[in-house]
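Input record, target 12 of the design panel.
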C-alpha cells in the first residue's frame, strides 16, 4: 500500500492541474505531458540525467574493478586501504558535498592548488557550464567507488583458485586471464552493480540540491531535482507528477533492457 498507492496517485495527478493549496484539481488530460515534451529545459534535464548516469556508472564500475583486483590481497596494508576507500560510502552526502564545494572553490579550492603545482590553468569547476556536470560525476564516483570495490572483492574471493592455478600452468597472460576467467565469473556481480548504480544515478538529488541548484544555466539539472523544483518551489504538482511518471518509465525501461539483453551474458555457476 505504501509503495503502490503513491505511484497510482502520481499517475492521477499527472493528468491534472493543481497548486497543492487549492481543494480542487482540474483535469487537463495530456497537457502536462505535451508541455514537458516541448520544454527545452525539460529536454536538457533529461539529457543531463542520461549523460550523468552513463558517465557515473561506466567510470565507477571500471575503476572499482581494477581497484578490487589490486586490493584483493592479504595483509594489513590492503585491509586498511579497503576501509579507507569504503569510508566515503558511510559519510553523509551533505558533508561530502560541502567538502567538495570547498575543494572546488575557483579561488581558494584545493583542486586548483593541485593543478597549479603541475602548471595547469585553474578551473571554475561548479561555476562553469562546461565543467559543472563533470564535477558532479567526480563527486558521485568518489562516493560510490568504495562500495563497488568491496562488492567486487567479495566476488573475486568466490572464484575457485583452481581455475587460476590451471591458467598459471598454461602460462596464460594476465590480460587473457582477466577477460576469459575473471570478468566472465564476475558477471553476476557486474550485473548486480550495473542495475543498482544505474537506478541510484537516475535518482541523484542531494548533490544537485546542495552544490549547484541545477545551474549554471540548467547545465546540472537532473530529473529528480526538476520534479522537486516544479512541485515544491513552483507548486505545479500536475506538471511535476508528469515528469515523475516519465522518470519512472525511464528507470523501468532501462532495467528491463538490462534484464532482456545483458542478463543472457551473465554466467551463473
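The sequence produced for target 12 reads:
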Amino acid at each position: 500500500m505504501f509503495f503502490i498507492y503513491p505511484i497510482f496517485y502520481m499517475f492521477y495527478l499527472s493528468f491534472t492541474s493543481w497548486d497543492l493549496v487549492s481543494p480542487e484539481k482540474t483535469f487537463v488530460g495530456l497537457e502536462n505531458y505535451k508541455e514537458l515534451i516541448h520544454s527545452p529545459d525539460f529536454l536538457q534535464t533529461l539529457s543531463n540525467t542520461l549523460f550523468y548516469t552513463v558517465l557515473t556508472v561506466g567510470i565507477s564500475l571500471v575503476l572499482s574493478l581494477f581497484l578490487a583486483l589490486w586490493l584483493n590481497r592479504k595483509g594489513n596494508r590492503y585491509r586498511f586501504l579497503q576501509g579507507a576507500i569504503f569510508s566515503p560510502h558511510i559519510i553523509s552526502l551533505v558533508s561530502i558535498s560541502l567538502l567538495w564545494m570547498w575543494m572546488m572553490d575557483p579561488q581558494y579550492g584545493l583542486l586548483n592548488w593541485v593543478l597549479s603545482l603541475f602548471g595547469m590553468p585553474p578551473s571554475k569547476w561548479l561555476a562553469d557550464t562546461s565543467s559543472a556536470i563533470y564535477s558532479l560525476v567526480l563527486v558521485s564516483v568518489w562516493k560510490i567507488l568504495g562500495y563497488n570495490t568491496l562488492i567486487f572483492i567479495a566476488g573475486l574471493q568466490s572464484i575457485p583458485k583452481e581455475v587460476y592455478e590451471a591458467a598459471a600452468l598454461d602460462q596464460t597472460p594476465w590480460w587473457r586471464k582477466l577477460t576469459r576467467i575473471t570478468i566472465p565469473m564476475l558477471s553476476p556481480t557486474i550485473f548486480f552493480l550495473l542495475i543498482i548504480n544505474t537506478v541510484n544515478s537516475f535518482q541523484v538529488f542531494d548533490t544537485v540540491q546542495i552544490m549547484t541548484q541545477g545551474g549554471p544555466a540548467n547545465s546540472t539539472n537532473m530529473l529528480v531535482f526538476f520534479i522537486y523544483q516544479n512541485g515544491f518551489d513552483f507548486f505545479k504538482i500536475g506538471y511535476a507528477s508528469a515528469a515523475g511518471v516519465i522518470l519512472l518509465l525511464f528507470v523501468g525501461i532501462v532495467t528491463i533492457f538490462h534484464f532482456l539483453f545483458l542478463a543472457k551474458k551473465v554466467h551463473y555457476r
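Residues 214 and 220 are 5 Å apart (CA to CA).
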